[in-house]
Amino acid sequence: MDFALTDRQQELARRYRDIGAHHARLDARDGFDWNAWHTITDAGLWQLAVPTALGGAGGTWADFTAAFEALVGTLRSIGFAMAVANQATLIHALLAHGSRGQQANVLPRLLNGEPGATAISERGTGTEIRALQTALTNDEQDFRLNGHKYNVSLAPHAALVLVASRYDDGPRSATALVLLDTALRGVSRSVPQATLGVHDLPIGELEFDDVPIDAGSLLGTPREGLKTLMHIASMNRAYFGLLCAASIHPFLADALAYAGTRSILDVSIDTHQHVQRRLVDVRIRAERSRWMALAALGQLLDDHPAALENCSIAKLTAAQDLTQSAIDLLALHGSNGYRSGMLSAFAADALAMISAGGTEEMHRRNIFAQMQRRPDAAAKSAAPVRREAAPA
């Protein structure tokens, strides 16, 4: 297997590594970095994997991934990286599932940098699709959308939102995916909400009050809605896994430099095995998270039957690795790390990945469901269960 970057991908990596370094978040300031957003838009990040016929650069998702990893690896902002992953996921959703009309009218807006969001989570039920309260209903002409969404990244600023909703058409409910413009009548949103971390990523709520929806705003059909949503969410999970792996790199570099210059009794602390172990463990976690995420992403793009399961595994394990690595880096820096600053802010940001893109429990439930549905060789070779006879 050849994992080497092409010449073009190496050039993309250099370009976006420089952009990330130029816009690196060097203090724990609040607020989204729109200058960085405009820079990556002008550089053509959103067009990389889009066919030329649809206004793109005609490249592949491997091209985008090379640029994404390089950008995230120097930017020092988990929040901004989440927004980039979310935008890319929405673009991929339109390419994979959008109608010609949506690709002609909605896709160009995303490619031009209008921020998009995906709204699934709701108050009280989180991302449990079977418990969706937001509902799409028929009226005499088109549809109406009513409900709310909670903890939506970039909700206070998003121009376009993909909304997961319940659609009752017959005895069973289906999942309808609605692409809507937030300027529509009946759409309201909150101000950015207070969060423990990712203060540079505005997170808010959306309310839908009898919002008029035409049939052309549905992404796919409700009959295929759940399957489509799982595919979209899996793409996001894979990129969140890559995000977790790449975002630690500049902080690991800081820690290596710190350990080499911090001396106790005229001996630098990086000569101690327990310090070396912490640093090596951070590196190991980042590498295993990266490769798992890349493998899962590759499976998803190839429509491999194990992709949904492995995208959940990638996101779940990468989030666990990132949070443990952030704690290890704090411990390495001692009381200096705990002081208010970029490292402590990074640790708080890392904790966001525990729930962003789905909680640990949700992913474990998905993995178990996929294990039950997919009768692989291991399941087929399992020994039959022997039932003991009841005592007389």
UniProtKB/TrEMBL annotation:
- Domain Acyl-CoA oxidase/dehydrogenase middle as annotated: residue spans: 117-211
- Spell out the InterPro entries in the cross-references: Acyl-CoA_Oxase/DH_mid-dom, Acyl-CoA_Oxase/DH_mid-dom_sf, AcylCo_DH-like_C, AcylCo_DH/oxidase_C, AcylCoA_DH/ox_N, AcylCoA_DH/ox_N_sf, AcylCoA_DH/oxidase_NM_dom_sf
Q: Report keywords, A-Z.
A: FAD, Flavoprotein
Instruction: Output the SUPFAM superfamilies linked to this UniProt entry.
Output: Acyl-CoA dehydrogenase C-terminal domain-like, Acyl-CoA dehydrogenase NM domain-like
- What's this protein's family per the entry? Belongs to the acyl-CoA dehydrogenase family.
Q: Name one GO molecular function term.
A: acyl-CoA dehydrogenase activity
Query: What protein name does the entry list?
Result: Acyl-CoA dehydrogenase
Q: Where is the Acyl-CoA dehydrogenase/oxidase N-terminal domain?
A: 19-114
